[in-house]
Design goal:
Helix content is 44%, strand content 15%. It is an alpha/beta fold. The longest helix is centred in the middle third of the chain and has 29 residues.
């Protein structure tokens, strides 16, 4: 089995963030040409609102062949149901769910035609817990992204395309360092058996594993990356 990924082309959404940058750097180590997509400018990346299907189609059309897609873009909302406005609900779902669907839909025909592809979705522990600190819109969007992962995995398995998700909990990014209070951070740490937050590089390492040719028999799987918060 060929295990070399040199020459493959990857698209990573949310590339301007800590986790996205870590994935871009990790895939580059394997000789993969990686193109970042984000609403914010990133080095060598494409500025695109992934909640806009026309913008996504234009961006992917300009790239051409895509072998690997990492749906990593996302925004956090800690508001629970009564504090969630209709505008916030739509904004969170557009970034966390709609964008992953539009990007996947855009790259699937090419992956099917070549008989090989990898799609990796950044899900979340919040899909299982209902959100220890995360709000209603965020938790719902990640639960739906998990279901999208299963649906696409079932649809594409016969074409040599695998679709998997990673379900991290509390990665050491601004979502934790800036959007949680110190009291919240300490309360969360008390629930993590390993006693620390996940590092972006650890998340990127799991992405590297899932896009590897040696992971071709894994599809429709959600890998927990939570330091033991949930064991199942």
């Amino acid at each position: 089995m060929k295990t070399d990924l040199k020459g493959k082309i990857a698209v990573v959404s949310g590339a301007a963030g800590s986790m996205g940058r870590a994935v871009v750097d990790a895939l580059a180590q394997d000789g993969i040409r990686t193109i970042g997509i984000d609403v914010k400018p990133s080095k060598g990346g494409i500025v695109c609102d992934i909640g806009d299907p026309a913008a996504v189609a234009k961006a992917i059309g300009g790239i051409g062949r895509v072998d690997i897609l990492v749906n990593n873009a996302g925004i956090l909302s800690n508001n629970k149901s009564e504090a969630t406005s209709p505008e916030e609900w739509r904004r969170v779902l557009a970034a966390n769910l709609d964008g992953a669907f539009y990007l996947s839909r855009a790259v699937i025909p090419g992956m099917k035609a070549q008989g090989w592809g990898r799609i990796v979705n950044t899900c979340s522990l919040a899909a299982k817990t209902g959100g220890l600190t995360a709000g209603t819109a965020y938790s719902t969007s990640k639960g739906a992204l998990t279901s999208l992962t299963f649906s696409l995995a079932r649809e594409l398995a016969a074409f040599g395309v695998t679709v998997n998700g990673i379900s991290p909990a509390y990665v050491n990014t601004p979502m934790v360092t800036e959007q949680l209070t110190e009291t919240q951070r300490q309360a969360v740490l008390a629930q993590i058996p390993v006693g620390r937050f996940c590092e972006p590089g650890e998340f990127a390492h799991v992405v590297r594993f899932l896009v590897s040719p040696l992971s071709g028999f894994i599809t429709g799987e959600i890998i927990d990356l939570n330091g033991g918060v949930i064991m199942d």
